[in-house]
Design brief:
With 196 residues, the protein is of the alpha/beta class. Helices cover 43% and strands 16% of the residues.
Length: 196
């Protein structure tokens, strides 16, 4: 069982085309705060990121934002955070967000959200961490991606135990419950080249 005090959330800097996504961001923020967990996220005030942070703050939760200098210069940093950490690069941002968290959730988002999710999953595959990782599949947003990941197993590119690292649920509460109950089913072997 995972002891979770802090959760990293990757999310879109746009709100998306459906109200389901905004509702999911607000719901997740409220649920994180109700559980007494700290939210770690990308530090933005726009899109799902901003909605997530605002909902967490409104519910009395603690929020840490991590944002690169370039985005601060574009004035997208969330000004209401008590803890906004400015880093030099996107790589430093991801590393810090990972270091500050015990679990990782991806809300709907674009290329950046997908890249962040897959990098953190790759780190888990390699045994760099054993944190629970999941997607909040609001409105079925991740259905096609999850189906594709099943195909990667069928086609022999991903092991079933690595596919099983990706938890998913349509609602925040069940996803966070699954993360709390998560127990890794494998141990990475650094010398086994088949692990990558």
């Amino acid at each position: 069982m995972a002891a979770i005090e802090s959760v990293c959330v990757f999310a879109g800097s746009n709100a998306g085309a459906r109200d389901d996504y905004a509702r999911a961001a607000r719901s997740l923020g409220g649920e994180v705060a109700r559980r007494g967990w700290r939210l770690v996220y990308g530090g933005g005030k726009v899109g799902l990121m901003g909605l997530l942070a605002d909902a967490t703050i409104e519910a009395g939760g603690e929020v840490i934002g991590v944002i690169p200098e370039a985005l601060m210069r574009k004035e997208v940093g969330h000004g209401a955070l008590s803890d906004l950490r400015v880093v030099r690069t996107m790589h430093e941002r991801k590393a810090m967000m990972s270091d500050l968290s015990d679990a990782v959730v991806a809300l709907p988002g674009g290329l950046g959200t997908l890249e962040e999710l897959f990098e953190i999953l790759t780190w888990a595959q390699l045994g760099i961490h054993s944190k629970p990782c999941g997607v909040l599949n609001a409105g079925g947003y991740y259905d096609d991606l999850l189906d594709f990941l099943d195909r990667t197993v069928e086609e022999g590119f991903v092991r079933a135990e690595h596919r099983d690292m990706i938890l998913s649920a349509a609602e925040a509460g069940p996803l966070l419950d699954a993360m709390t109950a998560y127990s890794p089913k494998y141990t990475a072997k650094w010398m086994d080249r088949d692990q990558t």
